[in-house]
Write a structure and sequence with these properties.
The chain is mainly beta. Helix content is about 5%, strand content about 40%. It has 3 helices and 40 strands.
């Protein structure tokens, strides 16, 4: 570009800035004439509604709400916009596919991007890559049919502060610099990557692809259900603390062979269910399943029948469990429909509120529970077809409530009778046991 052309460009830009003005009140653009009349707006004091394609090259701030909800073709291009005083709402419809907000950094309240029935989604473009701050909720959803997702990646490389993230039926998602968020919920999405996140309140991942949270240390509630891709290992390698009066870690679904939380020390409730491909669960540092963090004096109104449970349910392939540091479960320890052959994974457990052992097709004995000395309430054993030895228990074990043995055909009736030594309440034997031994 010649020197004269450069000078002309600079003079043109200066002239444009000189002509820029503040636009008072709300601005509604629904015709080309209205757009032409607003091209010199540098600020909009009220709200800005775009119902047609528009390029507003000088606009730097919107005092209240920005709404893009076009009725026809075109694109919304706001190259200089940096701040929105309240909320942003972007709605993409069949032939309106481009929204460019390359300089937008701050939205005081909510940011919502909704994809409607867009035709030919490959050329959809939404540029919000500079977004750093959303005061309340960031919501990106696809409102197509129940099984249709938007194959469009969402990369927010600058987002560092937001209170709540809600993602639904979109593609791969990445938040590379976000370190903390009170709530992150994603459903029917692609891969979820948060490589800097260390703290989260509620983390809910339902029917997503691969997940990566390598630095996550603390959470209140983690819920991972039905991943859509095959993962050899689902791991939260840095997770230490999920411990409070309403905290839990739950996993449900197929496609995961190994679940690993190698540093987890305390959890409010731990529930693994319907994981028919899961073969191993690795939590060697877990010490307590409790309503409150060790050392905390706070009290909770939640009862152990509702929280503080360790439940492994309907994991038919699960045969390897490492809970070698686990000492106590303030709620119920439930093992239902697993492939464990003994209970050696629980050899450090001394105290539980209750026990439920049911439908474990390979479980032959109670070997491994030799440290258990206190079951506060009930000890229930149901429908374990090859269980034959319940004598491998600590002689100091006391069961504060009742014990039930129901439909355990390989177990000696006499052994059940001897178990009464441990039980302060009543033993119920309504099912089948082997009287011949």
């Amino acid at each position: 570009m010649s020197r004269a052309a450069v000078v002309l460009a600079v003079l043109t830009a200066v002239a444009a800035l000189a002509a820029a003005r503040d636009c008072a009140g709300d601005v509604v653009l629904s015709t080309a004439a209205e757009v032409a009349n607003a091209t010199d707006c540098e600020t909009v004091e009220g709200s800005l509604d775009l119902f047609v394609g528009a390029t507003l090259p000088l606009l730097r701030s919107v005092g209240k709400d920005l709404t893009v909800a076009p009725c026809g073709a075109g694109q919304a291009d706001l190259p200089a916009l940096t701040t929105v005083g309240r909320s942003v709402s972007l709605n993409l419809y069949p032939i309106f596919k481009v929204v460019l907000l390359p300089a937008l950094r701050s939205v005081k309240r909510n940011f919502k991007l909704e994809l409607g029935n867009v035709r030919g989604m490959d050329d959809v473009t939404v540029d919000i890559g500079a977004l750093q701050f959303v005061g309340k909720q960031l919501e990106v959803i696809c409102s197509l049919g129940a099984k249709t997702s938007w194959p469009f990646p969402l990369f927010l490389g600058s987002l560092s502060s937001v209170s709540q993230i809600l993602l639904q039926k979109i593609g791969d998602v990445s938040f590379p610099v976000l370190t903390s968020v009170p709530s992150l919920e994603a459903s029917y999405c692609g891969d979820i990557t948060c490589n800097s996140l260390t703290t989260v309140g509620q983390l809910s991942l339902s029917s997503t692809g691969n997940v990566s949270f390598p630095l996550l240390e603390s959470a209140e509630q983690i819920w991972v259900s039905y991943p859509t891709v095959v993962m050899h290992t689902l791991e939260f390698p840095s997770l230490v603390d999920v411990c409070c009066s309403t905290c839990y870690f739950q996993f449900r679904g197929s496609n995961v062979t190994s679940l690993s939380v190698p540093k987890l020390q305390c959890v409010g409730s731990l529930i693994i269910s319907e994981a028919d491909a899961l073969r191993s669960f690795y939590a060697p540092a877990l010490e307590v399943v409790s309503l409150q963090n060790p050392g905390s004096s706070s009290e909770s109104n939640a009862g152990p029948e509702d929280w503080a449970n360790l439940e492994i349910l309907d994991c038919m392939e699960l045969s390897s469990v490492n809970l070698n540091s686990l000492q106590s479960v303030d709620g119920t320890l439930s093992l239902v429909n697993t492939s464990m052959v003994n209970l050696a994974s629980f050899n450090s457990v001394t105290h539980v509120w209750g026990i439920r052992i049911q439908l474990n097709s390979l479980l032959k004995s109670f070997a491994g529970l030799d440290s258990l000395v206190n079951v506060e309430v009930n000890f229930h054993v149901f429908e374990n077809p090859v269980l034959s030895d319940i004598s491998l228990l600590n002689q100091q074990l006391r069961v504060g409530g009742n014990a039930t043995f129901d439909d355990d055909p390989a177990l000696c009736c006499s052994a059940i009778a001897k178990f009464a030594y441990h039980v302060q309440g009543t033993i119920f034997t309504d099912g089948t046991c082997d009287s011949s031994c």
